[in-house]
Amino acid sequence: MDLLVMTLFLGLVLAMFMLIPRLRKSDHVKSVKSNISNKASEAYTKAEVSLHNKRTDCWIIIKEKVYDVTSYVEEHPGGDAILAHAGDDSTEGFFGPQHATRVFDMIEDFYVGNLVK
Predict the structure, then answer these.
(1) Handedness of CA 12, 28, 37, 55 (dihedral sign)
(2) Cα–Cα distance between 106 and 108 in angstroms, integer?
(3) Measured CA angle at 51 (ends 36, 96), to 5 deg
(4) How much is the pLDDT for 104?
(5) 106 and 67 Cβ atoms separated by less than 8 Å
(6) What span, in angstroms and rounded, lies between the C-alpha atoms of 63 and 66?
(7) 54: left (phi > 0), else alpha (psi -120 to 50), else beta?
(8) Do 62 and 53 touch, CB atoms closer than 8 A?
(9) pTM of the prediction?
(10) Count of CB atoms within 10 A of residue 85's CB?
């Protein structure tokens, strides 16, 4: 009987260790999305975007929307190709045949605002 209770207790503790990080990650994702939606009302001129043109500060324009992809530059499977249009319009390259359809969902995580016409 003691062995059964101890086994159940240990199982509960292990389950909590596995569940708590997932809950925290979920909260973090919500706060990141909340921050993104707060930035969504921002508008930037092409001149403002052009200042973000390096590896450590990389913004791009896709279909008149502005994205801060700085955190993705090092992970980009195409290497430094993402830097070819840093601070500029990347629409043509983004919709090229080299990109899988999942990038269309991924890019929204980097959205910071709209381009002022």
Answers:
(1) negative
(2) 5
(3) 70
(4) 85
(5) no
(6) 8
(7) beta
(8) no
(9) 0.64
(10) 18
* Contact between 66 and 59 (Cβ < 8 Å): yes
Q: For residues 5 and 10, what is the distance between their CA atoms, to the nearest angstrom? A: 9
φ, ψ for residue 53 (rounded to 5)? -125, 30
Task: Name residue 86's amino acid.
Answer: A
Residues 6+ away with beta carbon under 8 Å from 82? 58, 60, 69, 72, 73, 76, 90
- Spell out the residues 6+ positions from residue 44 whose beta carbon is closer than 8 angstroms to its own: 66, 112, 113, 114, 115, 116
Structure tokens of 28? Answer: 């973090």
**Amino acid letter for position 20:** I
Task: Classify 113 in phi/psi space as left (phi over 0), alpha (psi -120 to 50) or beta.
Answer: left
Q: Show pLDDT as tens, one digit a residue, over the chain (117 residues).
A: 777 666 666 655 555 555 555 444 444 444 444 444 454 569 999 999 999 999 999 999 999 999 999 999 998 888 888 899 999 999 998 888 887 777 888 999 999 999 998
Residue that has been written with the tokens 């992809």 in this structure: 69
